[in-house]
Amino acid sequence: MFKFIVKLHPEIAIKSKSVRKRFTKILTSNIKILTSQVDEHAKVHKNWDNITVVSPSSEQHVRDGLVDALKRVPGIVQFIEVQETKFETLDDIYQEALALVAPAIQGKTFCVRCKRQGSHDFTSSDVERYVGGGLNQYVEGASVKLSKPEVTVKIEVKNEFAYIVKETHFGMGGFPLPTQEDVLSLMSGGFDSSVASYLMIRKGTRTHFLFFNLGGAAHEIGVKQASFYLWKQFSASHRVKFIAIDFEPVVAEILENVENSQMGVVLKRMMMRAGSQVADKLGIQALVTGESLGQVSSQTLANLNVIDRVTDTLILRPLIQHDKQEIIDLARRIGTAEMSETMPEYCGVISKKPTVKAKLSVIEEEESKFDFDVLNTVIDNARVMDIRDIEKESKEEVKEAESVADLPSDAVVLDIRSPEEEDDEPLELDHVEVMHLPFYRLATQFGDLPQDKDYYLYCKKGVMSQLQALILHENGFTKVKVYRPE
């Protein structure tokens, strides 16, 4: 049997009784949904100060699955994995602790810490002294050290049960979904929009995804995969939508009619107009962007001010004060970095000298030259889908990029990881030629390779190689597959 005790987020615990009750009820429901996907027999019980998850299974993969699921539930800061025992005497608690923690404290310094609830003829300090003294005496090489020990043995006593903590796990924190209103994230698949979407999910908002397609089918496939990953990892307890708008006609209209230095700000205002209309149709109150102050020319205070004036819809920017490296580091932590690194960059509008201090009157004058029928048409043709359908659609779309685990003798493997990754973990295969060609050079250098051979793209997780294979297929290089060793 596996048992976990989910501690309530401090920000939930300090709220009013009614709000705390509502948040806890929602969190319990989300935990039930996600843990049932791992173990249909798992039981989830809501208490006033915690939530317990109990699985009757003894299989390690079930335990690992439950831990992974709980780590990805918004609203969980930490949870403890415990061994539950019913006791009558302090010695019962000690014997259980001895059997469980002896290997962990052998030859190390340790201390015992106890929290107690209920009516007992002993105190928490009594438990700490009794159990600590016994462990100190009977575990070889173990010694008590109350200040900064190597191991802390944690015990919680509640009425007639004692819970010996086997391991403490940390979750993503934030608020349960959906304790806040829905938002619509403007998703490009890059570092910024992916991290911004994650932060809003973490804050308890059901986050839908809006993609402005400027780069064709390969770009859309990549953004769909990134959006699906974020949903599957962090908000799979609730349904969300993915919306795609073909924005190339809008870009073409801007390039033809708008003065060069103003194009970037005008493009952003067109996106906000479109996003606002889509949000209104879906009953969503706010847009989310990955903009960070000063990161690029369109993200100065002056330009953001002009961009925001195009709509009454609330625009949220969770990354506004983050540095780029901070964003990349967070992307790596949540698992979106590799997808973002491989995402095709199609900015669509590149100004030679973009304005950094846009003036509303000037922008509005430029927009008067724009044919808004073009914008209205692409909005009307927006494609709305349930994000759960992306997985099925993605499998159908990538059938041409075959994945193999066994290579033929005449195969050529292209390791498309970055030079840093390749240096850290070189790919060496017996009797198979391996070439290193970073993903960002594929577009310009793949055509120079002999085209009478079959090439197998390799990266660590397969996401990058799958996307790059699709891009090469689109460009006419059909003898490209993906190498996925088991």
Can you describe what's shown?
By secondary structure, the protein is an alpha/beta fold. The chain is built from 18 helices and 19 strands. The chain has an eight-stranded mixed beta sheet with strand order 2-3-1-4-8-7-5-6. Strand 7 and strand 8 form a beta hairpin. 39% of the residues are buried.
Labels describing this entry:
6-stranded mixed beta sheet, alpha/beta, 19 strands, 8-stranded mixed beta sheet, 42% helix, 18 helices, 486 residues
In a nutshell, what does this entry contain?
This protein is α/β, with parallel strands linked by helices. It has helices at 10-13, 17-36, 60-71, 90-105, 124-138, 191-202, 216-234, 248-257, 263-282, 301-308, 324-334, 337-342, 360-367, 372-380, 389-397, 419-424, 439-445, 463-474, and strands at 2-8, 43-46, 50-55, 76-86, 109-117, 143-144, 151-158, 161-173, 183-186, 207-213, 241-246, 286-288, 314-316, 383-386, 403-404, 412-415, 433-436, 455-458, 480-483.
List the helices and strands and how they pair.
Layout: E1 2-8, H1 10-13, H2 17-36, E2 43-46, E3 50-55, H3 60-71, E4 76-86, H4 90-105, E5 109-117, H5 124-138, E6 143-144, E7 151-158, E8 161-173, E9 183-186, H6 191-202, E10 207-213, H7 216-234, E11 241-246, H8 248-257, H9 263-282, E12 286-288, H10 301-308, E13 314-316, H11 324-334, H12 337-342, H13 360-367, H14 372-380, E14 383-386, H15 389-397, E15 403-404, E16 412-415, H16 419-424, E17 433-436, H17 439-445, E18 455-458, H18 463-474, E19 480-483
Parallel strand pairs: 5-6, 5-7, 9-10, 9-12, 10-11, 12-13, 15-19, 16-17, 16-18, 18-19
Antiparallel strand pairs: 1-3, 1-4, 2-3, 4-8, 7-8, 11-14
